Amino acid sequence: MLFNRNILGLAAVASMAMSPVAFATNGYFLPGFGIRSMGMGGVGIASGADAISAAANPANLSKVGKRMDVGVTIFNPERSSEVWDDPSNGANPFQFSGGGDSKHRFFPMPEFGMSRVYNSDITFGFAAVGNGGMNTTYKGDNFFNYKLLSTPGQDTTVGVDLIQLLMPLSASFKVSETQSVGASVVFAVQRFGARGLGAFPLFDGSFPITADPNHLTNKGFDWSYGAGMKLGWLGDFFDKKLTVGAAYGTKTYMTNFDKYKGLFAEQGDFDIPENFGIGLAIRPNDQLTVALDVTRIMYSNVASVGNPGMNGVPGIGGVPSISDATYELGNDEGMGFGWSDQTIYKLGVEYMMNDKLTLRAGYNYGKSPVADDQLTFNTLAPAVVEKHYSVGFTYKMRKDLEISGNYMHAASHTQQACGQNIVDCVKIGMHQNYLGLSASWLY
Fold first, then answer.
1. Is 265 strand, coil or helix?
2. For strand 98-101 and strand 67-84, is the pairing parallel, antiparallel, or unpaired?
3. Could you give the CA distance from residue 199 to residue 150 in angstroms, rounded to a whole number?
4. How many CB atoms lie within 10 A of CB 213?
5. Distance (Å, rounded) from C-alpha 78 to C-alpha 25?
6. pTM check: above 0.85
7. What phi and psi values does residue 125 have, to the nearest 5 degrees?
8. Is the backbone of residue 158 left (phi > 0), alpha (psi -120 to 50) or beta?
9. Which residues contact 424 (CB under 8 A, 6 or more apart)?
10. Buried b / exposed e across 110-128, counting CB within 10 Å, b at 16+?
11. CA 155, CA 218: separation in Å to the nearest integer?
């Protein structure tokens, strides 16, 4: 039995490593870690209940005991982008137009976690979870492959594909009966590919928007590896009717995407940003838990994401040149997506109906990190979803086996503005659906 369970865990990790994640979206972060968390709007800093919750706060391991959790979510993001010229804004020499809905609408997102109690004070754990990512696949009327206008028959697919896998190796320590601390070494793997971005070096390279046009697009997939740290604290108060938690994740430093050093700032660097948060879990009785998390993601500290795009660079406008090569794609100060830091508010409710059935609901809000003057590049990354609604459940099949599920809907949200550089008017939008199921073995 132990052998079979270990094989199952390894299979979950392997499938996670190969599975795409597309805009799992607080920015490009998942709203929460684990099926149970997602059913409560993504809360987990002070209310973690499974081994996967160590990804939110490693101190959670002190409460989850010895267990293994394996699950999968089917993720359905509906992404759209459109660009056009408004004649009232004056002549645009490039006359980009087109857009539509992104293809590839369903993505599997496996998850895995296990925890082992070393003694009454120390618990170890390992998890493999998708942190998030971005994917767009636009076909047909394509607004970023400008050369199509003069060379029919070229590849008409435009898009990007980023996945991020986190593998926290964690330990928690009970300082006292009511206080725990935890730490994780967070190993990370990410994969990226871009296709059809031939518009960037316009006119056969006469528009020097990139420092390295040979490493900009259509290079296949590239892999990046790295590690960071996550620290956490958990405290119970008022006879465990109130739990308070805090977690801090350092920047995860990643190796560069060498195949795309002409696209991302700092010669292909794409670190995972620093993030931190606090959480509360209130239990007025043995059946009801109300949890609240507030988290902050520091996108602006990652140059490839936070550096301003075309509207933040001097000398683009209607003239096909950049007056200062410092801002060319791929350089240290090269253009990025122009994302701001994001604060996310998560609210979850859990109610134990009886000894077998627990029900959950939640809400998650994070203002779009995309500014209205940064929409051009974000046609490739329309991460503008703000409001998430979720429900979930856990059913205890027997003493050592639980089944959990959740559904989350991210409401449709669009951003639109004219007067962008190169393209004139841009409209981007998205809505999402998540449907997840997991099994938990309790020892």
1. helix
2. antiparallel
3. 12
4. 20
5. 12
6. yes
7. -155, 160
8. beta
9. 83, 84, 85, 86, 89, 92, 96, 418
10. bbbbbbbbeeeeebebbbb
11. 10
Distance of CA 49 to the CA centre of its chain: 22
**Among all chains, which residue has been given the structure tokens 């087109």?**
98
Within 10 angstroms of residue 35's Cβ, the number of other Cβ atoms is: 29
Distances (CA, A) of 27 to 12, 164, 337, 370, 381: 25, 13, 11, 9, 9
**Token code pair at residue 397:** 């099949």
Q: Report the run of H or E that residue 10 belongs to, with start and end.
A: helix 2-18
Residue with token string 């209310």: 47
| Tens digits of residue pLDDT in 3-13 | 344 444 444 44
Which pLDDT band holds residue 1 (cuts at 50, 70, 90)? very low
Other CB atoms within 10 A of residue 418 CB: 16
For CA atoms 49, 53, 57, 59, the dihedral sign is: positive
> Which pLDDT value is given to residue 24?
63
What percent of the chain clears pLDDT 90, i.e. is strictly above it?
66
Kindly report the number of other CB atoms within 10 A of residue 225's CB atom.
10
For residues 320 and 96, is the Cβ–Cβ distance under 8 A? no
Query: Which of 134, 116, 136 has its CA nearest to residue 126?
Result: 116
∠ CA 318-100-201, nearest 5°, is 35
CA–CA dist 28, 22 (Å, integer): 8
Dig out the tokens for 334 from the structure.
């090269």
Q: What is the DSSP letter of 264?
A: S
The maximal CA–CA distance of the chain, rounded, in angstroms, is 73
Report d(CA 47, CA 280) in Å as an integer. Answer: 8
At 13, is the secondary structure helix, strand, or coil? helix
The tokens for 65 are 């005991």
Residues in the chain, total: 443
Distance, CA of 279 to CA of 59 (rounded, Å): 12
Between the alpha carbon of residue 135 and those of residues 91, 99, 232, 329, 396, the distances in Å are 32, 15, 31, 20, 36
DSSP secondary structure code for residue 210 in this structure: B
Token digits of residue 234: 């958990």
Backbone angles phi, psi at 163, to 5 degrees: -125, 145
Radius of gyration of the chain (CA): 23
* Strand (E) or helix (H) holding 4: helix 2-18
